[in-house]
Design a protein that fits this description.
Elements: H1 2-7, H2 9-12, H3 39-47, H4 69-83, H5 89-105
Helix pairs in contact: 3-4, 3-5
C-alpha cells in the first residue's frame, strides 16, 4: 500500500476513485468500477512506463519505467485486494506464454 500511496494515490485517490491531477484541471481516471481496469491492465501501464508519469504533461505517453518487477507486482496486488479489480494477471501471462510457444512451434 505504501508504493500506491506514494506514486498513485495523488492522482487516482487513496480509494482508487480518481482525483484531479495536482496542478491541472484534469481528472485522473478511477481504478474502481471500470470493467476495463484489470490487474493485467494496471501491470501493462506500469510495465511500459505509461504510469506513473514522471512529470508534466500527464498524458499517458510512454516513458521510462519507474518500478522494478517486485514493486510493480506489489502495486498490482494492492489494487486487486484493496479495490476489488479483477485479477486476471496470471490468466493473461499464461495466454502470452502459450502464444509465444505456439509462435515458436510454427516457425
Amino acid at each position: 500500500g505504501q508504493l500506491y500511496a506514494q506514486a498513485c494515490a495523488q492522482c487516482h485517490a487513496s480509494d482508487g476513485g480518481g482525483a484531479v491531477v495536482p496542478g491541472t484541471d484534469r481528472e485522473a481516471p478511477a481504478l474502481t468500477d471500470r470493467p476495463q481496469v484489470t490487474a493485467a491492465y494496471v501491470d501493462l501501464v506500469m510495465r511500459t512506463g505509461r504510469m506513473p508519469p514522471a512529470a508534466s504533461p500527464f498524458d499517458n505517453q510512454p516513458r521510462e519505467v519507474e518500478f522494478d518487477d517486485e514493486q510493480r507486482l506489489a502495486i498490482v496486488a494492492y489494487v486487486v485486494d484493496e479495490f476489488g479489480i479483477p485479477d486476471n494477471l496470471n490468466e493473461v501471462t499464461d495466454l502470452l506464454s502459450i502464444s509465444s510457444i505456439r509462435r515458436n512451434e510454427c516457425r
